[in-house]
Amino acid sequence: MSQATSKAHQQAGSLWSSRMAFILAAVGSAVGLGNIWKFPYITGENGGGAFVLVYLACIAIVGIPVLIAEVMIGRRGGQSPVASMRELTATEGTRKGWRLIGWNGIVASFLVLSFYSVIGGWALVYVFKAASGMFTGADADAIGGTFGGMLASATDLLLWHSVFMAIVIFIVGRGIRSGMERAINTLMPLLFVLLFIMVGYAMTTGKFGEAVSFMFSPDFSKLTTEGILTALGHAAFTLSIGIGVMMAYGSYLPQKVNIARTAMTIAVLDTGVALMAGLAIFPLVFANGLEPGAGPGLIFVTLPLAFGQMSGGVIFGTLFFALLLVAALTSAISMLEPVVEWLEEHKGISRAKSALGGGLAIWLVGIGTVLSFNNLADFHPLAFIPFFEGKTIFDLLDFLVSNLMMPLGGLAIALFAGWAMKRQGLDQEIGLKGGVYSTFMFVLRFLTPAGIAVVFLYNLI
Ligand code: PHE
Q1: Residue 179: what pLDDT?
Q2: Is the Cβ atom of 29 under 6 angstroms away from ligand 1?
Q3: Nearest 5 degrees, angle CA 38-CA 151-CA 387?
Q4: For residue 270, which of 30, 104, 110, 211 is within the disulfide window of CB 3.0 to 4.6 Å?
């Protein structure tokens, strides 16, 4: 077992050649569909400003402390999430129950990838749609129709889901990490540039002010308790925390790297991308008389409208969806990693076979999400529970992983790092001193758990 572990570690040992390499990979994981697809549509569904404010508070109080703690646990454990937690519970002399953190990670990353891949498939189709020039001059109805048509076809969605999963399996199976590093290195800055261009375009629509006030002037009457839970879940989702992904990545982090500073950089970049996506999208929503609460289709309906009207729109549009695809891929890869590492370690299967086997199982479960948008759109498996009434398979999976497993995983990580681990280990790892360190520990031990607990209790009542 320990042999398999060190082997798994070695294969990726070349991974983080530097702090920068880790930042890029972690940002690659963090920045994804969550920022550009999910953040705008859940902000729209939850009424804007108040939701954004709660989301930012969740990033600060829960997201950043848990990210620091999770990377720290990963580096200290030095193996896959399950093995790291097994080792740490032994060396730190804590209860064995904490090991559930590792298992929660394997199961959650399995489930999240099953639906993430389907949405990744949408990004993939939209690269081709944008390149074909079909959006040029098209109106909101035509573009909405294109999106609706795509969703209605189970075979199309299945095809793109399959292609997306195949790419992920291929990359993870080969373990071509240095290639990924270099790709992320150039593609992420490009994504930023394109987002800037989109925000610039959005400013010309005359509705930029309305969008800014939609996003930033809070109207708390629009905020529901489920909205607060969504904000908390999204803070975890967007930073890729609570499910062992950052733990796995942290296990390859050189000892000299300052975890706290690195985590801040990741969180700031990630939040920046999300806010910019909102500023690019909502002006278009208002300018075209669309519904901010339109749901998962939001960016696929608004952005093509803009691309169809601006000069050079075919090129910008194609580039944009290509980058969205890359952002989705770098996140998806990080989701498959814990599953693959676990299969390698515990089942003694080769990396390539682990990626294939794990990936195929995930692909299969993903068919449930594919069907949620067409043949099974009216199938609500948990309709007998009032809260889950209108939720499809996709909605339920998203809710389970994003709103339950990720925040609760985060809670367990905060408690484990803040209360169960020995202080000495933390002092060495975190890279903060004096008052800043005490403040951080106070937040991690009290505010983070209290924040998560309050949101959950509030939702239960
Ligand atoms: N953070 C990614 C995004 O915003 C999603 C993700 C979740 C990636 C969990 C890895 C683990 O798209």
Answers
A1: 60
A2: yes
A3: 55
A4: 30
Note the pTM of the prediction, 2 decimals: 0.91
Which residues does the chain have with pLDDT short of 50?
1-8, 10-14
238 in ligand 1 pocket by Cβ < 6 Å? yes
Nearest residue (by CA) to ligand 1, atom 11, is 240
Q: Is 34 in the pocket of ligand 1 (CB under 6 A)?
A: yes
What whole-number distance in Å separates Cα of residue 272 and Cα of residue 138?
A: 30
